[in-house]
Each structure stands twice: as C-alpha cells, then as structure tokens.
Sequence to fold (128 residues):
Amino acid sequence: MRRFLLYACLLVSIATQVSCQKKEDGVSFESIYPANYITKIQVKEKDGGLIEISNIEDVNKWIDKVKKIKFIREENQEDRELLLIYNGCIVKAYRNEKEIGDFKILKLNGVFFKENIEFEKQVESLCK
Fold:
C-alpha cells in the first residue's frame, strides 16, 4: 500500500510540474526578421498605386513598432492564395528586391503564422 501511495504521489507531482511549464507563446517579429533584415516595404493601394518605403530609417521606425509582437506558427504550412486585403491594400516586405514576407496572409520569412490583431493594426497604418 505504501508503494502505491508513493507512486501515486510521484505521478501527481510529475503531472503538476508538466502542466505548470510555460507553453510556447510564439516568436517575436524581431526574431523572424533580425535588425536591418527588411530593406523595403511595398504598399500596393486599391487604386493600383504603389508606395515603396525604401529609406532604411523609415523601415526601421515601423519595425520598431512591431518588433515585440508575438506570432504563433500555423499548423498548416501549405501555400495559399491572398483572400482578403486591408481596405484594398497589399503590404509586402523585401530584402534586396527579394520578397520575404506578405503581411496580410502572415507569411513571414517563408512561414505562415496565425492571425494577429495587434500586427494587423500596424500593417493597416501603412495603408493610410
């Protein structure tokens, strides 16, 4: 009986420790795109106009606003089509003329992430 109680206490103790461990709360924008990695942000407006933010200081100002935002990886990593856009606006990130991120479908550095309202608000600010 003692042995049973010892095993039961041990089992409860292990279960408690496992359940109390901090679960992954996502990865930050700055861990996805290290400092100075993004060299240009392109905003395609609904009327077809194209705005390019290529001044590195302007790019970094925007990145400073989003660098601490956390993202959770999507389980489904299959390519997908752009279904919705911000008020008719598409925002993409580039590194040396190569597209590295689509901020609407949250494909950041080749990985799809779950919707993030805080990040969406910052992306929408580029579309105004």
